[in-house]
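Researcher: Structure for this, please.
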Amino acid sequence: MRKRIQQAGLIVACIAIWAAVLLYYWVCLRQLEPEKMAKDVTADLVEKDNLLTKIKHDSVLLSAVFQGKVNSRQQEYLLQQPVYIYAYNNDSLVFWNNNSVLPTAPWDSLLNKTIIKEKSKGVFVRKSFEFVSKTGHNGDGHTKHIIVAYLPVKIVYPVSNGYLSNHFLAEIRE
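Model: Predicted structure, token format:
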């Protein structure tokens, strides 16, 4: 009698484990559906765009960036951002928080526009805007302060292995 109860318990345990494995497989498969991936990428880009808007409206931070007076707290804050930020005085790059992607020059034709840029390191959304200090002009009146930001969508590695694999940066959201 005891042996039958043990066998029935093992069978129930095996069925429960198989059910858990199948449920896990179904959840993982659902994460790869195009609609779910598009939703995740969109949510990730909205989150990064909101972060960029917050940085755009932080005149103290941007003034420090363009004056070359970024303190350690501000620098650490900018380095931790998931958005690649490049600051230009006219055509001269004066600040960047990521060196994995080479930025393009801040052409006036692309100012205040959003474009999708495919580079060797992946796919990015490129946004740019001009920063005007609180005084209403840019210092001497001739210097253009321009921020170019890359919002990473997909990272591509030239070599792929178990450690480096091409991936979308959007987090899996429930």
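Researcher: Any notable elements?
Model: The first strand starts at residue 84 and ends at 89. The longest helix spans residues 2-31.
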